[in-house]
Model the fold of this input.
Amino acid sequence: MNMLTDVEVEKTVAKNMSNQPEMKMIGKDVSVFYGEKRALFDVNLNVRKNTVTALIGPSGCGKSTFLRSLNRMNDTIEGCRVTGKITLDGSDIYDPALDVVELRARVGMVFQKPNPFPKSIYENVSYGPRIHGLAKSKAVLDEIVNSSLQRAGLWNEVKDRLHEPGTGLSGGQQQRLCIARAVAVSPEVILMDEPCSALDPIATAKVEELIHELRENFTIVIVTHSMQQAARVSQRTAMFHLGYLVEENDTDKIFTNPDDQRTQDYIMGRFG
Amino acid sequence: MATAHIYSAFDEELATLSRRIAEMGGMAEQMVSDSIRALVTSDSALAQRVISEDVVMDQTERDIGDTAILMIAKRQPVAADLREIVGSIRIAADLERVGDLGKSNAKRVIAVQSAGIPRPLARGIEHLSELALQQLKDVLDVYSSRSAEKAEAIRLRDEEIDAMYTSLFREMLTYMMEDPRNITPCTHLLFCAKNIERIGDHATNIAETIYYMKTGEQPVGERPKDDNTASVVQQPAE
Done:
C-alpha cells in the first residue's frame, strides 16, 4: 500500500470532515467606484461551484457591477476602480500579472441582448476556440462547434445551416448561440446579465432549461430582474440594495421566508 | 401588514380574503354555540337553522379557495404573501369542518330530545363547549392581530379541553351503567362531546397555521394532549 504524505492525509481528512460547499469564486470586501461615485460597498459574496447563483435587486443596486467585476469587465469602463479581493480557485483575479484575456476565457459572459458576430453560425462558435488555440485541426474545431451547439440545445435547429449568418436566427436562437459561443472556450464560470430580458416566454423557458443543464459542468452567476426566474433557475440567491449585499441564502429560503425585510419587500413587490 | 404592495389591487384582494375568513369564523362560532343551546334546551327549530347554515359555510369555503387559486395564478405571490394565501385556504378548511361538527351536533338534538338529557351531563357538555368556543374565539382574534406568540399560547391550551372531554366520557359511562335507558341519549351525547373536542383541535390547527403565516416556520414540538379516553375502563358494579 502506498503511504500518503502528511499533506495528502491532511487534505483528505479536511475534505471528509467538512460538508462545506466548494467555493469557485470568493469575493471579499469588494467595493467598486465609478470615478467619485461608489457603486458597491464591501460586498462579501462567494460563488459555489456547479451552482446557479442569482443576483437580484432593484435597478442601480450594484448587482450588474458585481457581476462584471467577476471577470474584470469593469476594466473597460473609464474611471472604474475595484478594491477588495476576488479570487478564482484561490488566485487573485486582480493580480497585475494575470492575463485578462485568459481570465475571460475561464469566466465567460452572456449579455442581455443577443449579440452574435455578423458572421456565420459556425464562425460565431469557432471564433473563441480558434483565438485561444484550443483546436489543432479542422476536425477538432468541428467537434467543438458541434458539441457547443448541442450543449446550448441549438444543434438540431441549425445543423443544416451552419454557414448562414447568426444574425438571421430568431432572438431566442441568437441567445442560445451566444451561450454556445461562451461554452465553446470551455469556461469554468459563466456570467449572465439578464439573458432572457429580450426573449419571449418560450425562448425564455428554453434558456432557463439550458441554464439548469449547464450547471452540471459550469458554475453560473445570473443577474435577473425576474423574481420568478431567480426562483426557478438558481440554488443560491443574493439580494443587493443601494450597493450593499443585503442577504445571500438558499433560493428556497429567500423565496419562502427571507431574513431581511428589504428582501421581503422587494420580492413581494412592496414599497421599500 | 407591512408596507403596501406596488399593485394596490393585490392589497385589496388580500384584505378581501382575510375579511371572508373572519366572516366565516364568526359564522362557525355562531353555529357551534347555537347547536349547543339547541341541544341543552331541546330546541329543534334552532337545530334546524344550524343544519341549514352549513350550506352557506361550505359555499364560503369554496369561494375562498377559488379566490386564493386565482390570486396565486395572477400574482405569483412569494414569501409572506404566499404563506398568507395558502394559510387562508387551510384556515377556511378548518372552519368548514367546525361548521360540519356544529351541524352534526344539531342533528342529534332530535334524537336526544325524546329521552331528555340528565341535567349534570348537560352542564358538562355546556362547560366543554364553553372551553372550545373560547378557544375558537381567541384564535379568530389572533387571526386579526397575527400575533405569533398568542397563536403559540392558544396551541398549548388544547390540553384543557382534552382533559374535560376525558372526564365527561367517564361520567357518561357511569350513567349508562346505572340505567340502560340512558344508553341511547348518552351515546349521542358522547358523539356531541367528541365533536366539541374536535372543534378545539381545529382551533388549535388554525393557531398553528397563523403561527406559520407569521413566522414562516412550523411550530416546534408536539402539542400537549390529554385525551385519555382510549384507555378509560369502567367495570360494571356487581
Summary: The helical segments of chain B are 8-41, 44-75, 79-115, 119-145, 148-155, 158-178, 183-215.
